[in-house]
Give the backbone structure.
Amino acid sequence: MRICQEFYCTTSGGGCGGYTLLRLSECLHGPVVVVCPNCKHRHPRTVKGGRIVEEGRLKDGEEIISPKSAYSKTPRAEDFLKGLPVNERDAAVVPAEEKPSLAAQQAHAILRESWAERFAGKLMGK
């Protein structure tokens, strides 16, 4: 299972003050370096059970590099802001949706149809 979380590029550490959405496997453990997709600021952290935490932040580890599309100047949900962790250097878990929204379902259907039109014949050897 993957844990969806939002990581804050702390201005107190020299970052840009933006948010990056990440999905990490709960099987991940150990030191990492989260790289902000906006300002490229490097944030050494530790992953425990898929959660990014400040502990051990002076260690180097595997880089976690997200696409620019994962970045936002504001958090994605206002409700999420109310539950931010006390430590701004920890990532905050974004609760999973129980049922995908209608827009998400439609987007998934469009992508599936597009993929089938584009690649199905090639995969079947046609």
Remarks:
- Strands lie at 2-8, 19-25, 29-35, 42-48, 51-53, 62-65, 71-72, 92-93.
- The first strand starts at residue 2 and ends at 8.
- Residues 2-95 form one domain.
